[in-house]
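We treat protein structure as text, and this decision shapes the records that our systems exchange. Below, we set out a record of this kind in full and without editing:

***
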Amino acid sequence: MLTEKQMAELEVKHGRIARLRDPQGKWEVVLRKPTRPEYKAFRARSHNPAQIADAQEQLVRQIVVHPTAEAFGSLLDDYPGIAESPAASKALQALTGMAAEEDSK
């Protein structure tokens, strides 16, 4: 598992980040905020019936900063639901600003 120092270094390098962890400590994934073009491509895929099943996994694969892309692929072979888990969805909402609150007057 990453130390707080390593997390701070990733945050300095990538800006806004989010960490997903297995409750038993078997795996850990760190995502960076997507760029605007990455997010737009995700939205396009998520509205395309032929691509919707893979849209979120593709976005997560693009924005993984820990572990390496190759190691993350292997991790998905063992835990295929990581990229589409409720935790990943919540992290993506926070990273993209979709978790904002409304304050009406």
Notes: The CA atoms of residues 31 and 64 lie 5 Å apart. The helical segments are 4-14, 36-46, 55-63, 69-78, 86-96.
